[in-house]
Amino acid sequence: CIFNVEELQKIKLPDTIALDIETTGLLLTDSLLTVAIGNDEKVWLIDCTKFQHSELYSFFKTLENNKIICHNAEFDLKFLNYNYDLDLQCYVDTLQLEHVLDEEAIELDLHNILKRYFLVEFHKDIIKFWNYSKENIYELFFSYDGKWIKQRSQIFLYNVKDTYWTYKLYTVLIEKLENDKNTKYFYFTFTIPLLNAVIFMGKYGIPIDVSKLMEIDNELCLDIETKKEILVKEVGPFNFRSTQQLASIFKGLGITDSDTGKTEKGAMSLDKESLENLSKREDTIGKVSSLLLEI
């Protein structure tokens, strides 16, 4: 466990590492509690509550040169990039890789994947504790009486196990991937670059041309108003939100319940399916139905 800057600076990581973080919640604005980094031989656990933001930044910045493996990198790396102004990229995401290798796999959480490949389970007490304490994790982590210290150590253990087994899983999955050249090409050419683009957007957002957006909005509004005017010319003024008035108009045009079907309450059905059927007609009814669908 790493609790001070001197220990943090002494960490010498291998080129390829697994990384997992624990936070007070699932929002980017939540607090970082711990970071576990390593492989299947050694894992370093960093208690982030013991460090200044600048101290963690200096260390995390060095990770930009590493090949980072995560299980659900979209959350872990997006969180670190956003809160520490980093550009960490994912080398392999074991969650995505398992899906690419086995598209029929449904349960892609780390716990269930490990059961499939290694026939191992995380200690049930830790799983139960973690699920129970998620809602009050901030208070739990920063309580220092004897009771909470034991549970605090369980968080450390959970984080370390996540990292160890993520790397262990990576070694198995990457071997399977090496035996499938087409899937390997797809994964590293499309899947990973797309994932890193999503992670990138989590930090910088998506630029929007506001003037163009307003232009499109005005065009759509004008188009809707134009079609409303055409409808009024065809059938007269009515409340576009009143299904009763619409039903009255269609009945005036000769449409009956047998043409549209009825709602559960016995009224004329004017849902999308009914209007689509009526829009196929080449008369006023078809024109009115088409305009209503477009609006």
Keywords summarizing the entry:
295 residues, alpha/beta, five-stranded mixed sheet, 9% strand, elongated
* CA-based gyration radius: 29 Å
Shape: elongated
Order of helices and strands: HEEEHEHEHHHHHHHHHHH
Structural class: alpha/beta
The proportion of residues in beta strands is 5-15%
Please, how many helices? Answer: 14
User: What is the percent of helical residues?
Assistant: 55-70%
**Low-confidence parts:** 124-130
**Count of DSSP strands:** 5
Q: Characterize the biggest β-sheet.
A: 5 strands, mixed
**Mean pLDDT rating:** 87
State the distance separating the first and last CA atoms.
61 Å
For the largest beta sheet, what order do the strands appear in spatially?
A: 3-2-1-4-5
Characterise this structure.
The protein is an alpha/beta fold and 295 residues long. Helices cover 59% and strands 9% of the residues. It has 14 helices and 5 strands. It has helices at 5-10, 53-62, 73-84, 94-101, 110-117, 124-133, 137-141, 146-178, 181-204, 210-235, 243-252, 257-260, 272-278, 284-294; strands at residues 16-23, 32-38, 43-47, 67-70, 90-93. The chain has a 5-stranded mixed beta sheet, with helices on both faces. Strand 4 (67-70), helix 3 (73-84) and strand 5 (90-93) form a beta-alpha-beta unit. Helix 3 (73-84) packs parallel to helix 9 (181-204) and helix 4 packs across helix 8. The longest helix has 33 residues, at 146-178. The chain is elongated and about 85 Å long. The model is unreliable at 124-130 (pLDDT under 50).
